[in-house]
Q: What sequence folds into this?
């Protein structure tokens, strides 16, 4: 057990195996359907989320953990004498980071470091893996914080959306109104830029064409890519994710990990979304 305890929220999408291996504690966000509230990844899983959306015809609302939620999770480790590093969902997308900072302020100064990932899903996960390896080596909280802050701008996240209904209804993307009527012909490629989701490209034709274009662009400058680890994230489409994983391995990545988007991410991007997350040098 290292001196630095790692925390993330449920949007990191690392999966149970990696979370257990690196002893990462997860603070769940909330998914709200009408009068019922679920903890992401605890009370509800993506397959149930999609079933409810189809049955109700509406999207759920999502909510950040409260400062009290974070305080409850942080307190036992501070009492044990351990420092805490928490890497959050982008502050441009949620108040999660802000609430964690409020909670951290209730503990002795310098014991908890709250980092805004400026990203989502395994864009957070890549940073967590780097932090975990440093923690295993005995690095201090200050040293890990400095390294993660230096790396977060090098994470590139792009994904292909199969249906715009979820993003549009959830209000998570601007500039969509002009082509909502062309959903059957246009496949959007979404990119995380400056912590925000933005429409990166509109590809006419089959979904496979959009995926090919996304990969072609992301892999164009091979020398600028860190080939150690990449993620393929998906929402209810493991088959396509495996195909992309095999392609990335053929392109020279040493480790390509699969991740299923949790309920909060899935509620905004919708089913059959697939994405690639990698690190630039």
A:
């Amino acid at each position: 057990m290292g001196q630095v305890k790692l925390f993330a929220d449920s949007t990191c999408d690392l999966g149970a195996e990696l979370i257990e291996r690196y002893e990462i504690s997860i603070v769940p966000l909330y998914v709200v359907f009408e009068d019922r509230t679920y903890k992401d990844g605890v009370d509800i899983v993506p397959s149930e989320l999609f079933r409810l959306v189809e049955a109700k015809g509406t999207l759920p609302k999502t909510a950040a953990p409260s400062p009290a939620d974070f305080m409850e999770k942080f307190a036992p480790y501070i009492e044990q004498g351990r420092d805490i590093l928490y890497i959050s969902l982008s502050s441009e997308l949620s108040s999660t980071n802000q609430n964690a900072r409020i909670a951290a302020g209730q503990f002795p100064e310098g014991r908890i470091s709250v980092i805004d990932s400026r990203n989502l899903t395994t864009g957070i996960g890549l940073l967590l893996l780097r932090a975990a390896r440093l923690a295993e080596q005995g690095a201090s909280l200050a040293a890990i914080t400095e390294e993660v802050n230096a790396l977060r701008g090098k994470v590139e996240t792009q994904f292909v959306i199969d249906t715009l209904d979820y993003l549009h209804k959830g209000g998570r993307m601007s500039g969509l109104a002009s082509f909502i009527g062309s959903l059957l012909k246009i496949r959007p490629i979404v990119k995380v830029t400056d912590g925000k989701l933005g429409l990166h490209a509109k590809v006419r034709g089959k979904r496979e064409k959009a995926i090919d274009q996304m990969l072609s662009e992301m892999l164009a400058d091979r020398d600028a890519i860190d080939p150690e680890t990449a993620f393929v994230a998906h929402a209810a489409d493991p088959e396509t994710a495996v195909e992309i994983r095999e392609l990335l391995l053929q392109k020279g990545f040493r480790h390509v990990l699969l991740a299923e988007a949790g309920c909060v991410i899935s509620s905004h991007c919708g089913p059959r979304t697939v994405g690639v997350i990698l690190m630039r040098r």
User: Anything to note?
Assistant: The mean pLDDT is 92. The two ends are 30 Å apart (CA to CA). The chain has ten helices and 13 strands.
